Amino acid sequence: MGMRFTVLSSGSTGNATVVDNGETKVLIDVGFSAKKMELLMKERELAASSIDAILVTHEHSDHIKGLGAFARKYDLPIYANEKTWEELDRQIGVIAEGNKRVMETGGVEEFGTLRVESFGISHDAAEPVGYCLYEGEQKLSVVTDLGYMSEKVKEKITDSDAMVLETNHDVDMLRVGHYPWSIKRRILGDKGHLSNEAAGEALCDVMTNKTKSVYMAHLSRDHNLMDLARLTVNNIVQERAPESKQLRLMDTYFDRSTKWDVLDSE
To answer: Where does the record place the Metallo-beta-lactamase domain (predicted)?
Structure first.
């Protein structure tokens, strides 16, 4: 069947994505309680007990809120780098030693024919990462929670069939918003979050004729609008890469899952 994925939810209240190649199902982040995770999976006719492994991007609560409980309930291995594990050990409770798997940044893990590679990103966490997942020639990149898109990150995610890409905020909305300046400065900084405009510019550098869908993720509920994010990214893409007619900009949601996206097997 190739590879398919669903963004179960994305935003400051919680994040989780499932990737399935027909034999193996991996879960990227567990930003909700185990009960909520089960409900989100049920929307996509997916049994929580069918998950084979969990990949962690970083230790912020909107990515690991239900990690400990979910992993213990279903006896699942958790993959994270050592610095992230140091933070997780303080936050998620006791995990069976056999389920604590160290995947160093830049490392590769294979789950049957599903190949997963991590890469470092810039965010105010211990050692945050994004992931590229491969099934044959198919490639999915998941990259959120980063202050800027470095050339190394661009190199990793270039030529993806699909991406889950952060479009966190509109800069003008954030600047006039109600947050204290200290928080605004964090979000706007190199270890904060990617703006709509920055995401659009980065996308132009990494997409190819192979790239069919980009899921706009981790939207701020206070300083962004889905229509605005889509319009901003689309305008930049059309200006810089007007030939990219095949590209679909897809929504993600803070309260429900996206439909399964099945990547082309060709």
So the answer is: 13-178
Q: Which two tokens stand for residue 54?
A: 């969990």
| Domain contains 264 | no
Which range marks the domain in which residue 104 is found? Answer: 4-255
The model's pLDDT over 188-201, given as tens digits with 9 standing for 90+, comes to: 999 999 999 999 99
Which residues, 6+ apart, have CB-to-CB distance to 263 below 8 Å?
2, 3, 4, 5, 135, 138, 140, 161, 162, 212
- The model's pTM is 0.96
Cα 47 from Cα 248, distance rounded (Å): 28
Distance between first and last Cα of the chain: 11
Burial class (CB in 10 A: 0-12, 13-18, 19+), 177: middle
Number of domains in the chain: 1
